[in-house]
Amino acid sequence: DIQMTQSPSSLSASVGDRVTITCRASQSISSYLNWYQQKPGKAPKLLIYAASSLQSGVPSRFSGSGSGTDFTLTISSLQPEDFATYYCQQSYTTETFGPGTKVDIK
Amino acid sequence: EVQLVESGGGLVQPGGSLRLSCAASGFTFSSYWMSWVRQAPGKGLEWVANIKQDGSEKYYVDSVKGRFTISRDNAKNSLYLQMNSLRAEDTAVYYCARDWVTTDFKSAFDIWGQGTMVTVSS
Predict the structure, then answer these.
(1) Which pLDDT tens digit goes with each residue over A76-96?
(2) What are the backbone dihedrals phi and psi of residue B74, each rounded to the nearest 5 degrees, phi first?
(3) Which positions in chain A touch B112 (Cβ < 8 Å)?
(4) Across the interface, do A43 and B114 touch by the CB < 8 Å criterion?
(5) Which residues of B touch A32 (CB under 8 A)?
(6) Are A49 and B102 inside 8 Å of each other by CB?
(7) What tens digit of pLDDT does each residue of B51-90 get?
(8) A residues 25-54 near B, CB within 8 Å?
(9) Which of B61, B43, B49, B53 is closest to B20 using CA atoms?
């Protein structure tokens, strides 16, 4: 099975900050990498698919990059509604998720 | 409106059984792979199982193989998860999710239900 790791596990940031979250796969997954946002008590929401494609309706401040084993999710200017937990997920083989990165208010 | 609505969760004793349902609306259900994803309290997401459009292929995470069965009824636009021999570690919110395949054959979970809670405890 492909293992996914994320760093950091949590971070504190302020509104307007640029935030970067890293996801690493235990083997190459090409660009079969998705990012989700989850708020407490809610279902996850797809933000980025295929490593760098923005899902319809998602603000352009979210972007994704990477291929192979190393990927990043960037929020260019953090907004109040962006405080949440972010998960990466590989779809190269049987789907697995990263452990999540919690973004909270500094 | 594209929507998935789960039902069937509840409290069950260890070793017991439960059947979850997911009602789909607003899209052509029979055209999509579908998945169940779970989240234990305070923990991350774990894919559990998925099923092909016509039900001919099914895949499971190792921890539920032989205990859980995924199925679907395209005539009823419904997805199911039969859970037997339940264990405390199966306690989680269970989400159904639509497997969306992009034009270059990459997949993602683009539509999620609100989730249904399953608690396994004596």
Answers:
(1) 999 999 999 999 999 999 999
(2) -65, -25
(3) 43-45
(4) yes
(5) 106-107
(6) yes
(7) 999 999 999 999 999 999 999 999 999 999 999 999 999 9
(8) 31-32, 34, 36, 38, 42-46, 49-50, 53
(9) B49
Q: Is the pLDDT of residue B102 over 90?
A: no
Condensed to tens digits (0 to 9), the pLDDT of residues A11-58 reads: 999 999 999 999 999 999 999 999 999 999 999 999 999 999 999 999
Cα-Cα-Cα-Cα dihedral of A43, A86, A3, A97, to 10°? 10
A96 Cβ under 8 Å from any chain B Cβ: yes
What the block records as the tokens of B102 is: 């992009």
Half-sphere exposure of A79 (CA within 13 A, CB side): 7
- Report the C-alpha gap between A71 and A88 in whole angstroms: 9
Query: Tokens representing B106?
Result: 């990459």
Cβ atoms of residues B19 and B8 within 8 Å: yes
